[in-house]
Specification:
Length: 311
């Protein structure tokens, strides 16, 4: 996403309530079919059109998934470079989008990306969506609600304005304003830090939680927040697209697995997704997708169902 596109997204976000209908910003529960081919816009995903259906893996899926010929995937489309909208404001792109399209090809299904708020996706897997693929960190709490197939790992990064004018120190965030996306692990961590500041009798830590990840970055660019906290590939991409206005603060924290969410009681789909992801890992397609977006440092070589080693 170019800086022009970033600013366009920013303008759309800020003005939506006043001037535009929600559809103008790439809206919730808006479905888009994905073939893996590119459009006229400058942001182009990895071409998965050459991937052939694997009949043995496709046969593992239940009729509840295959009967309409579509693989429906819930995503929150403001999380570049994992999932976001092209400059046309309509077309989903990113490495999660490419992976979703690749899975559809393996299954012989037409992938349909459905835009939704991040915190609504896990509860809707199995009812509104066949899968949730949206940079979901695998946690024990989330595994109580859905099954996961691991496919990536990422740390978390603190991001401030260039030069750190607010003198943010991640070892003591009390008195600062932290921007995060609603429903993320980073939001949980920020809220825990805020409680600790209160317990310690220090200045309050204010957590600014937004439905869209772009809003978290925007809040730092505009000075509404002192720092934002996000998955490392997302933070790095935001920094690269803001003409030097942002910088990472310190080193990435931790490294945790992310997964594809599947309905908890759907063992057939879970096993089929694991086989399909492993096939894409083994034949090199998976790594080609990650390299296309420059995020190969988070690659895994094994797709696991509900992994116990989450780091």
């Amino acid at each position: 996403m170019s800086f022009k596109a970033f600013k366009t997204a920013l303008a759309c976000t800020l003005s939506a309530a006043m001037l535009l209908g929600a559809a103008a910003c790439g809206t919730k529960d808006e479905a888009t079919s994905g073939s893996g081919s590119s459009s006229s816009s400058s942001t182009t995903g990895y071409d998965v059109s050459g991937i052939k259906k694997d009949a043995s893996i496709a046969a593992m899926l239940p009729d509840s998934v295959t009967k309409d010929g579509k693989l429906t995937v819930g995503m929150e489309l403001t999380y570049a470079p994992a999932e976001f909208l092209k400059e046309d404001g309509k077309t989903p792109v990113g490495y999660d989008v490419d992976l979703s399209n690749a899975l559809g090809k393996v299954f012989g299904l037409d992938t349909q990306i459905v835009s939704a708020s991040f915190d609504s996706i896990v509860p809707s897997v199995g009812s509104k969506y066949d899968l949730g693929i949206t940079s979901l960190t695998i946690t024990k709490e989330r595994m109580d609600a859905v099954n996961f197939v691991s496919y990536y790992k990422a740390g978390a990064t603190w991001v401030v304005k260039k030069g750190n004018p607010q003198k943010v120190d991640t070892s003591d965030l009390c008195g600062k304003k932290i921007a995060v996306q609603t429903g993320t692990v980073e939001e949980e961590d920020a809220n825990k830090a805020a409680k600790q500041c209160k317990t310690d009798g220090k200045k309050p830590l204010e957590v600014l939680s937004s439905k869209l990840q772009t809003d978290a970055a925007t809040n730092v660019v505009t000075g509404k927040a002192d720092v934002f906290y996000a998955d490392s590939p997302v933070a790095g991409y935001a920094i690269s697209q803001t003409d030097g206005q942002l910088q990472a603060l310190g080193k990435d924290e931790g490294s945790v697995k992310q997964g594809i969410a599947i309905a908890k009681n759907d063992d057939q789909t879970t096993k089929a997704v694991q086989k399909a992801v492993q096939k894409l890992m083994d034949d090199g397609t998976y790594m080609k997708i990650l390299k296309h977006w420059g995020v190969q440092s988070g690659a895994l070589d094994k797709a696991e169902i509900n992994p116990t080693d989450l780091s």
